[in-house]
Design a protein that fits this description.
Chain lengths: 381, 69
C-alpha cells in the first residue's frame, strides 16, 4: 500500500467550477503581494498537497518549533520552514485577518488569509537549519536576501503558473492513483537535480531490486552556476528510461521546489514530500542535499534515527563506481578491490569533460544520455 | 484534536510488556502515548480511500491524456 499522506490527510487547497470563478473575481479587488519564484512553487506545493499537512504558510509557533525541534507545533516531523517573507512597506498596508492575493509574474496565484504577521531572525534560521551563519553557504545567502517580515495563513489556489513540462508534472493526487493502477505497493523515490550518470542508474536499480516501482522525481527550479539546465535533466532522463528501464517499473515526473542545500534537514524534507506523493521509501545517498564541507557525509543518514514516526523508509545506498576487476558498477560495501581499480564518477568531472566537448566514457554515462547533453549548445546554467 | 481523555483497559501482562518496551526504546514516554499513536496509525490506513470515484476518474483521464496510463 502506498504511504499515507504526512499528517494523515492529503491537503487540497484548490477550487473548481463556480466556486473558483467567484474567488478569481473577488481576487481582482484584493491587495496584491508580489512573491518570488521559490514562494510561487511553495504556493503550488501547499495547494496540491505536496506539503501536507500544511494548508498555508507557517505561523510563528510552527516556525519556531520546526527550527528548534524539527517538528510542527503538533509534533508532526517537519524540518524546513515554509514561510512567506514580505517587506516592511507591505506590512504597512495589511493587518491580521485581511485576505490578500499572492501574485507571481503578474499572475494572481492564490488568496492568503493573513493569520499572523511576525519578524524572523535570519541568523538564527541559518544556524538551526544550515548549521552555519556564513553567507558563503548558498542556502544561507538565499535566506539573507529574503525580506524582513513574515506573514502566515491558509491559502487557496486561484491558478497554477504555466508549466512548460506540464506533460511530465504530476501532483500527489495523480501519483497515488497511478501507483495503484501500476500495482506498485512499495515505491522508492529518487531525488535528483542532475542528468543521470551510471552511478545514479546503479543506485536506482539497486533500490528497484527490492521494491515494486521507482518514483524518479527531479527538482526543477532555482540553480547554482554549473547546474544542468532543466531541459537537459528532463530529456536525458527520458532517454535513459526508455533505453535502460522496464516500461512499467518507474514513474517519472518533475517537482518544482527550491533546493536549499540544507543537507540532513533537507533529506528529511525530501522524504516527507515524497511520502505525500505516495512513496514508501526514499533513496538517500552520501551527503544528500549537501554542499561544500558543511555536513558530515553520513549526517543525512543519521538524522533519520530521530524520526521513528516519519512514515517513509530511507534506503541508504552508497555511492557507486565502476570496478575494473569486478567488471561492473559496484560500491564500497561490495567491492574488495583497491582505489586503483575503481573508476569514480564525479559530477564536476563530467561537467568539465562536456564543457571541453569531450564524451564521458561508457563507464561513466550512457552514450544515449551523452548524446542528449551534447545536443545542447550550453547544457549548464 | 480534543485533549479530553478516556480510560481504556488492557491486560496487565501486555501493559507491563509495553512499559518495558518503552523504557528500552525511548521513543515514547508513556504507554498512553504509544497506544494513542498506534490507534491513530490504524485509523489513518483508510485515508487513501477518501477520494471519490468521480475524482479518481478525473485523475485517470488526466493521466491518460499525459500518456502515463
Ligand atoms: Zn572490485
Amino acid at each position: 500500500m502506498v504511504s499515507k499522506p504526512h499528517g494523515g490527510k492529503l491537503i487540497d487547497r484548490t477550487r473548481i467550477g463556480k466556486s473558483l470563478e467567484r474567488l478569481q473575481e473577488d481576487a481582482e479587488n484584493m491587495l496584491k503581494i508580489s512573491i518570488s519564484e521559490g514562494r510561487a512553487y511553495d504556493v503550488e506545493n501547499i495547494a496540491h498537497g505536496v506539503y501536507s499537512p500544511l494548508e498555508g504558510f507557517m505561523g510563528y509557533n510552527d516556525y519556531i518549533s520546526v527550527l528548534k525541534n524539527m517538528r510542527l507545533e503538533n509534533d508532526i516531523p517537519w524540518t524546513i520552514p515554509i514561510i512567506l517573507d514580505v517587506d516592511n512597506k507591505c506590512i504597512a498596508s495589511i493587518k491580521e485577518g485581511d485576505e490578500v492575493v499572492l501574485n507571481y509574474n503578474n499572475i494572481n496565484m492564490a488568496i492568503l488569509r493573513i493569520e499572523e504577521i511576525y519578524s524572523w531572525d535570519k541568523k538564527e534560521y541559518a544556524y538551526y537549519i544550515y548549521k552555519t551563519k556564513s553567507d558563503e553557504h548558498p542556502g544561507v545567502e538565499k535566506i539573507y536576501n529574503r525580506k524582513d517580515k513574515i506573514i502566515s495563513g491558509p491559502i487557496t489556489l486561484l491558478r497554477d503558473i504555466p508549466e512548460i513540462y506540464e506533460n511530465v508534472r504530476l501532483f500527489p493526487k495523480d501519483t497515488r492513483v497511478l501507483f495503484e493502477h501500476l500495482n506498485m505497493k512499495n515505491i522508492a523515490a529518487f531525488q535528483t537535480r542532475n542528468a543521470p550518470h551510471m552511478g545514479h542508474e546503479y543506485v536506482m536499480k539497486a533500490a528497484l531490486t527490492f521494491v515494486d516501482g521507482l518514483f524518479i522525481n527531479p527538482l526543477l527550479g532555482w540553480k547554482k552556476k554549473g547546474d544542468f539546465i532543466d531541459d537537459v535533466i528532463v530529456n536525458s532522463y527520458k532517454t535513459l528510461l526508455v533505453n535502460y528501464f522496464q516500461k512499467d517499473s518507474y514513474v517519472f515526473s518533475i517537482l518544482r521546489m527550491e533546493m536549499n542545500y540544507a543537507g540532513p534537514k533537507e533529506a528529511i524534507h525530501h522524504a516527507i514530500v515524497r511520502k505525500n506523493f505516495g512513496a514508501t521509501h526514499i533513496i538517500i545517498g552520501r551527503d544528500h542535499a549537501g554542499v561544500g564541507n558543511y555536513y558530515d557525509p553520513y549526517e543525512a543518514w543519521k538524522i533519520f534515527e530521530e524520526f521513528p514516526d516519519l512514515g517513509i523508509t530511507p534506503l541508504f545506498i552508497r555511492e557507486a563506481f565502476y570496478c575494473k576487476k569486478c567488471k561492473t558498477m559496484t560500491n564500497e560495501k561490495i567491492c574488495p578491490h583497491s582505489e586503483d581499480d575503481r573508476v569514480r564518477i564525479s559530477g564536476t568531472q563530467i561537467r568539465n569533460m562536456i564543457m571541453k566537448g569531450e564524451r564521458p566514457s561508457e563507464y561513466i554515462m550512457r552514450p544515449e544520455v551523452v548524446d542528449v547533453i551534447l545536443s545542447y549548445k550550453n547544457p549548464f546554467f | 484534536m480534543s485533549q479530553e481523555k478516556q480510560t481504556v483497559y488492557v491486560s496487565k501482562d501486555l501493559y507491563e510488556k509495553v512499559k518495558k518496551y518503552i523504557q528500552e526504546q525511548g521513543t515514547f514516554n508513556t504507554v498512553d502515548e504509544l497506544v494513542e499513536f498506534m490507534l491513530n496509525e490504524l485509523l489513518d490506513q483508510s485515508v487513501n480511500e477518501t477520494m471519490s470515484k468521480e475524482d479518481e476518474e478525473k485523475v485517470k483521464d488526466r493521466l491518460k491524456r499525459l500518456g502515463y496510463m
